[in-house]
Amino acid sequence: MMDIIVDNVSKSYGEQVVLKKLTVRFPEEKISCIMGPSGCGKTTLMRILLGLERADEGRVEGVPYGKISAVFQEDRLCENVSAIRNLKLVSEKDEAELRREMEALRLGEAFGKPVRELSGGMKRRVAILRALLAPCGCIMMDEPLKGLDEETKIVTAGYIRKNAKEKTLIVITHDRQDLELLGADKLLTLA
């Protein structure tokens, strides 16, 4: 792994300029947070880093394509299968290990339920867990703690911190409290 470098990246949608000559470095194996108002380009930047969109100009280096995991604004889970089956899509851990991981995020009761029957907060935690269990060196998360009550947010942030060690973690958030809970090493504020 190496630092992820964004160099003079610009992106527009028609006449709307979303990113203009953005240059930033996301340090390897650190937690970086991106903050800013709605519509300032946070999610667009993440989509460019993931290779889902192309920048109009500039370059991106150091993204370990093929070894990257993501949590999007929507949970993007397989709704008709259980939470455990969603985790097995990316992890070779056995069911007992997966159950322990789920219980660490207070998801014990969700183990065998179809995802469509889970609450929004439970779905969010399953999506986070799936991203963390995937074999990867870099994880990108778009508003991972949204919709969680305070106590669950604290537990989940601690779990993310613990399980993202030795990985590059890039998190989009609107909430300053998330920076503290995640122990962010770097903050990028987009205007």
UniProtKB/TrEMBL annotation:
Keywords carried by this UniProt record: ATP-binding, Nucleotide-binding, Transport
Superkingdom as given in the UniProt entry: Bacteria
Signal peptide from the UniProt entry: none
Residue intervals passing through the bilayer: none
InterPro entries with a match to the protein in the record: AAA+_ATPase, ABC_SmlMolc_Importer, ABC_transporter-like_ATP-bd, ABC_transporter-like_CS, P-loop_NTPase
One GO MF term: ATP hydrolysis activity
SUPFAM superfamilies: P-loop containing nucleoside triphosphate hydrolases
Annotated SMART domains: AAA
PANTHER family on file: SPERMIDINE/PUTRESCINE IMPORT ATP-BINDING PROTEIN POTA (PTHR42781), SPERMIDINE_PUTRESCINE IMPORT ATP-BINDING PROTEIN POTA (PTHR42781:SF4)
Protein name: Maltose/maltodextrin import ATP-binding protein MalK
Lineage: Bacteria, Bacillati, Bacillota, Clostridia, Lachnospirales
Gene: malK
